[in-house]
Specification:
With 155 residues, this protein is α/β, with parallel strands linked by helices. A hairpin with a 4-residue loop joins strand 2 and strand 3.
Length: 155
């Protein structure tokens, strides 16, 4: 049996972790702000999953709300390294199995550590769903628990 792809891989991973996820079609938008407006939510409710490469060649997934940017100094301190970088699109795809704009920890290849910005806890958030045109809604606290994520101020 072949491995599921895209949003089906997201669903399979969520099910295996006992994590409730709702997959919804996402309207076409030219920016995160427009996407939030079209969905009737705040930009902070859309959480970006960044693939981050460490100097040793391994990766981690950093989750930050859509209205913020990662604070590199804070993230380096949390991870305990001096250097982090964003890989190019091909490296991100190879590391997670997902294209940019669809990346999510749900079903990502690699079992990479997850670091979640503390500001996203306590609410329901929208993540990438493994394929374009779809979003995955999850409870942020349940997501953090399901992944044994590090929760810290990283934005």
């Amino acid at each position: 049996m072949s491995e599921p792809v895209g949003r089906r891989r997201v669903e399979a991973d969520a099910l295996a972790r006992g994590l409730e996820v709702e997959l919804v079609e996402r309207p076409q938008a030219s920016s995160l702000e427009e996407s939030a407006r079209l969905m009737g939510i705040e930009p902070a409710d859309i959480v970006k999953t960044l693939v981050v490469k460490k100097a040793d060649g391994t990766f981690l997934l950093a989750l930050v709300p859509g209205d913020r940017q990662v604070a590199w100094k804070k993230l380096r301190a949390v991870v305990g390294v001096n250097k982090l970088q964003l890989p190019d699109a091909d490296q991100a795809l190879a590391a997670t199995g997902y294209e940019r704009g669809t990346i999510t920890p749900l079903g990502a290849h690699g079992s990479w550590p997850v670091v979640i910005d503390s500001s996203v806890l306590g609410r329901r958030i929208a993540l990438g769903a493994g394929e374009h045109g779809w979003g995955a809604w999850v409870d942020a606290d349940a997501l953090a628990m399901a992944y044994g994520a590090t929760v810290a101020d990283i934005s």
